[in-house]
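Ticket #4471: structure export looks truncated?
Reporter: QA, pipeline team
Priority: medium

Steps to reproduce: submit the single chain below to the structure queue and open the exported record.
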Amino acid sequence: MSKVLRSISCNTRIPVKLQKNIVRNLSYVCVKYEKQILKNFHENDSFYCRKLPIYTLSKRFYSDDLPSHYKVMLPALSPTMDMGTIVSWAKKEGDKLNEGDLLAEIETDKATMGFETPEEGYLAKILVPAGTREVPIGKLVCIIVEEEKDLAAFKNFVDDSPPTKAAPPPAAPSAQPSPTPSQPKPPPAPIATPSSAPSFAKSSERLFASPLAKRLAAEQGLDLKSVGVGSGLFGSIKAKDLNKASRGVAEASKAVKGDGFEDRPISTVQSEIARAVLQSKQTIPHYYLTVDLSMDEILKLKQKMNKSLEKEGVELTVSDFIIKATALASLKVPEANSAWMDTFIRQYNAVDVRVPISSKKGLISPIVFDADKKGLAQINKEVNNLIAKAEEGSLQSFELDGGTITVSYLGMFNIKSLSTIIVPPQACTLGIGSIQKRLVPDASNGTKVSEIAQFTLSCDHRVVDGAVGAQWLIAFKKLIEEPHNMLL
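Actual output as written to the record:
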C-alpha cells in the first residue's frame, strides 16, 4: 500500500494518517477528506482516488480477439446507492471522448447526476441503453477504445460477464451446492419457490439474505421465503431480488387502465424518499414545538444590505437569514445539532444545513456545509448555485449526503405553517410558513401591524427533549427578531 493517497482529479495529497478512516467495500475504498467523498481503487499496489462523480470502475483489457479497450462499469454515485437508472447517454457510439466529458446521466437513490468520462478515447459500444432501470453497481455499461480504428471490432460485442462481484455469504451451507440447473422464469407474483430451484436452496434451512434486503423486506412487509432463490452467491437474496418480487406482486394485482386515471412510474428518487419518510415516521418519536416570530427587523436589514450589495450582484433572501440563524442557534444549543446512532448519540461540532429544493427532477435536498462559519452573502451564493445545479442535474453526491439539521421553507406558497418529517439520523428539522401581516400589541400605540412567520421545530424525543427544544427556539428567536446578533 502506498503511503499517500493521491486524487488525480484535484491533485489532493491525503495524509497517511487518514487511512485509518478508510471504509473498504467489495470493489472500492471510500474516504471522506475535507468534506469531499473520494473513491480509491487499488491497482499495482498503488491507490488512486478521484473526486465524485469522476470515479468509476474502469479496467483496461487485452485480448487476442479484441484490441486494447476499457470496460466501464456503473459506479456507486452515493454511499447508499445499490442500483441506478441510466436516464440518458450524452455521447453516442463512435464519439470522441475527453476525460471529464459528460458521458451519461444516472439516477441514483439521491438525485440524477452527471457521470463523467473516465478515460480518453472513443465510445465503442453502449451495453446498457438509456431508460434501463435498476442497473446494479459494477454492471458493464460501455466500452471505450483508444484508437478510432478499433471501433469496428466492438460492433457486435456482447457482455457475458456477471453484473457484479458477489459478496461471500455469512456462512456457507454444510452441503456442497450442486450445479444450478436451467430453470424457467419464475411467475410474476412471488408466491412460492419455483420447483426447479437449485438444490442448495433445499439443503439448508437457513435463509441467506443481505442486510439491506432484510431491512427492505421488513419495511415492505415481504416474506423473504416467498422470494425464492436470490441472485447472490449460494442463492442469497439481494435487494434487487426484492424489487423484482415487489414488482411481481404489483403486476399481479394491477388494475386495467381506464379512461379516468393514469399510472405513472415511480423514479428511483421518489422510491427512496418514500422509503425514508415512512421509516422516519414509523421509527422516530416525533414531537413539535411552534412559535410565531416577528420578521420586521430581518426585512428591514435585508433591504439595507441588498442596497449595499447591489453592485456585487447579490440579493439576499429571507431564507439566507433563516439558514444562518439556524446554524448559530444549533451552536448555542448543540444537543439539537446531534444524531441518533442506535447505540450512542453523536453531537456535531459544525452545522451543515440541509435545504430541500423543489426542482424539475423532483424534491432534492442539497447541503450548505459549515453554515455557522459563513456570511449571509456566501450562503446566498451557495444556495443559488445548489438550486441551479439541481435544475441541471449536476449535483455531486457529497452535496447531497449528510447534513446535521434541515430547514424547509414554504413561504413562497403562502402556507401558514409547516410541520416537517425528521430526516434520519438528524435530531431536528425546522419548518417555516409564509410571512403574514398581523395586528399585534404595541406599547406606544396600543396595536400595530407586524410581519409574522410561524416556525415549527420537529424533534426526535430520543435525542432532544422538550426543554432542549424550547431552549433552541429561544436562541433562534433572539437571532431572528434581533438579527444584529448574527454579526456578533
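Status: closed, not a bug. The export was complete when the record was re-opened. Leaving a note from the reviewer for reference: The longest helix spans residues 376-392.
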